[in-house]
Amino acid sequence: MTNNTVTKIQPHWWRKSLLGVFLGLSFAYSLVALFAWYGPGGIDADIKVQFNMWIISPIWLTIIAFTFMFKTAKQAFLYLASANLISYTLFFALRYTV
Amino acid sequence: MKIRGDIIRTYQSIHTWTGIITGLVLFIGFYAGSLTMFKPAIEQWATPTVQELLQIPAIKLDQLINEAAKQQEKVKQGFIINFDENSSPMMWYEKGGGRGLRLDDQLKHATLNEYDQLVSYQGEKNMLGSLIDQLHRTAGIVGKVGHEDLGVLILGIAAGLYFLALISGVIFLLPTLVKSLFALRQNKGASRFWLDSHNLIGVVSLPFHFIIAWTAVVFALHDPFYGGLSVVYGDKPLFERAAPGKTSYDFSSLPPMQQYIDKVAELAPNHTLHLLDFSRLDTTSPSLAIEVKANDQLMRGGYSDIIYMNPFTMEVEYSTVYNEHNSNYGPIVTSFFGLHFGNYAGNLGRWVYFIMGLLGAFLFYSGNLLWLEKRRKKQQQQSKSSKVMAALTIGVCFGSILGVVVSMLASKWLYIYSTQTNIYYLYLYYVSFFAAIGYCLWRGAARGAIHIQLCLAFACLAIVATTIAGYLLPHLELASTFQQKNYFVELIAFVFAMLFFVSAKKTKKRATQGDKHSVWAIAPDKAKQVNQAIEVNTTT
Predict the structure, then answer these.
(1) Which terminus of chain A has a smaller tally of CB atoms within 10 A, N or C?
(2) B358-385 residues labelled b (16+ CB within 10 A) or e (exposed)
(3) In a domain, A41, yes or no
(4) Which residues contact A25 (CB under 8 A, 6 or more apart)?
(5) Which of B13, B167, B225 sits opposite A53 (nearest CB)?
(6) How high is the ipTM of this complex?
(7) What's the domain count of chain A?
(8) What pLDDT, in 10s, does the model give residues B475-493?
(9) Is A11 at the interface with chain B, CB within 8 A?
(10) pLDDT digits over B301-312, tens only?
(11) Residues of chain B contacting A32 with CB distance shorter than 8 Å
């Protein structure tokens, strides 16, 4: 515990906010996309489109809120971008192979 | 519970800044939202009794419609059949109609008299409740972006920041939550008391606040969210759109009303039929919107569920009345709407939401006060920005309430002396609102708070006095124009008059006897003049 300053959260307000807003939104959409196509009822279930629209914002806003837990903006970028990459890869793999 | 200091500081900053940015518009959204819980009651209170004509038995409705259609061409375009016992059985728009808020709609009411002759009355549709609803949705911010209100979009974004404020508030409160949640420390000074009540209300009503924040974001921003979703859906259309109709129908082929009543009983057995709204009957896409009510379950609209059908073929096009056969997701989505509207537990539920909404408004008000106090501790001298923020907090919050109270106070008098009531509501609201802000900026937050609260108290009392005057002075025709079935509006006005009196007194005490360096302090020499002014006010 010698380098105590390094483990503390760096504010990086603007960069973290922007990352949360944009990468958070795209990640939220990827989760909703997986749910829309492969969740209960599939893509054609009645009224499901409304449910899907409703769950985008709480996922998105929760991601934004917790983006500020990352120690640095760089770390926030790495984690959010990887999360996006994984979920979109999964989505497109399912969508175009299955 | 232990949380690292740097996390707490980070989330304290987020909580503070999201709160400060959005507090004022959300205050208006919340207190006006509380009032919309009783929107039909407020509009009924403000509508002259003569406008509501006597109901007739359902069996006579067809005769009424035929008589009206014979005499009035407009009826063949569309009309409304109302089954509520306090409303006219039939109405149609002589001017306006359709979706959106217009202040000069002319509504014609019609019924049959004892000789089965058509009796009608034309009047301006009272919009007091709708204007309060508009204030709730836009915070009074005017302007349009595309087809959406600018105020709605601003409130949608504010609601998103408010969602972040809720999460961050919980995170940085966690360590001290258990220890000090129920401690309302009155003996540790005013700011400690404000902090404790802010935290207590925030935590106790947290689920309500998460629901309101989330639903408000969705109500305001559903169009962009659907836009993004259409990319996800790819070639799949989001909504099945019915092809535009090619058939035109003859008005005389409209089925008898009993058929609709039977159909609704079949489609929605747990609901009661409220109204049938026929529109575009003379086009190739005629529409019938059926409003049905259920008092003890979640509903899609504020006060009703809705079924759309083709009025001639009685084919259902869309319905928010679900059963286990037609959808799993429908009831869930309806519950999101119902949880915002507070319509699932009858009037008791509405009163609970009314109080929760007011407590929410208190949350934003007290949050601003806390921030101002905290800034002051950092800087002994009052900065200009603190003073302006204090003046805005008082001016915007109390000014907005004053605008609504003055509009309600003027409402009955406007009906007696004029016919253009709705437009005057707007003038009165904005004049009161900006006058209050101007006064606070001019004379400072402390004096503004005392004087505007006194104004509010007197205006609330004057609402009660208006009703009493109606009975004491029959020649004014107030009581005969507005025959009231209950006195809830007067009761609430009286309660709030008392609250504002007490609060003004406490504010004055703090201004003259509290901490001299506070933004809420009035310098001693000037305080004397205010004292005298208040005594004059309260004695006259």
Answers:
(1) N
(2) bbbbbbbbbbbbbbbbebbeeeeebeee
(3) yes
(4) A60, B228
(5) B225
(6) 0.92
(7) 1
(8) 888 888 888 888 999 999 9
(9) yes
(10) 888 999 999 999
(11) 229, 232
Q: Locate the chain B residue with the closest alpha carbon to A6.
A: B6
> Cβ(B301)–Cβ(B293) under 8 Å?
no
CA of B222 vs chain A CAs: smallest distance (Å): 7
The reply to whether residue A61 touches residue B163, judged by beta carbons under 8 angstroms, is yes
Nearest chain A residue (CA) to B333: A51
Q: Quote the domain boundaries for residue A32.
A: 12-97
- Nearest CA to CA, how far is A53 from chain B (Å)? 6
Q: Which residues pair with B287 in a beta bridge?
A: B279
Of A32, A47, A65, the CB nearest to B327: A47
Question: For residue range B234-281, what is the model confidence (pLDDT) as tens digits?
Answer: 888 888 777 777 888 999 899 999 999 999 999 999 899 999 999 999
Residues in chain A, total: 98
Provide DSSP, B139-191. TT---EETTEEHHHHHHHHHHHHHHHHHHHHHHHHHHHHHHHTT---STT-HH
From chain B, pick out residues whose CB is under 8 angstroms from the CB of A38: none
- Of residues B13, B330, B336, nearest to A54 (C-beta): B336
Q: Report yes or no on A86 lying in a domain.
A: yes
Cα B161 to Cα B206: distance, rounded to the nearest angstrom: 15
Q: What residues in chain A have per-residue pLDDT under 70?
A: 1-6, 98
- B255 and A59 Cβ atoms separated by less than 8 Å: no
pLDDT of residue B537: 57
Yes or no: say if B77 and B61 are a contact pair by the CB < 8 Å rule. no
- Nearest chain A residue to B331 by CA distance is A47
State the pTM of this model: 0.90
* Inter-chain residue contact A43 with B233, CB threshold 8 Å: yes
